[in-house]
Amino acid sequence: MSKHIENKETVVSVKNVSKSFRLPTESSNSLRTTLVNRMKGIKGYKEQEVLKDISFEVKKGDFFGIVGRNGSGKSTLLKIISQIYVPQKGSVTINGRLVSFIELGVGFNPELTGKENVYLNGAMLGFSTQEIDEMYDDIVNFSELQEFMNQKLKNYSSGMQVRLAFAVAIQAKSDILVLDEILAVGDEAFQRKSREFFETIKQDQNKTVILVTHDMGAVQRYCNKVIYIKDGVLEKSENLQDITNQYSEDNLETYEDQMSNGKNKKIEKAKIWIEKQSNNVIADSNETFDFEVNYALYDDVLKSEENIYIAYALHDEKRGGITFDSGSIKVNGDGLKVSLPLKNFHNTDFRIIASLRKDPKIIDPNKPNATDMITFTKDGNDARFMLRDRDDKEDYALLRKL
Question: Do you know which Pfam families this protein is assigned to (predicted)?
Answer without folding.
Answer: ABC_tran
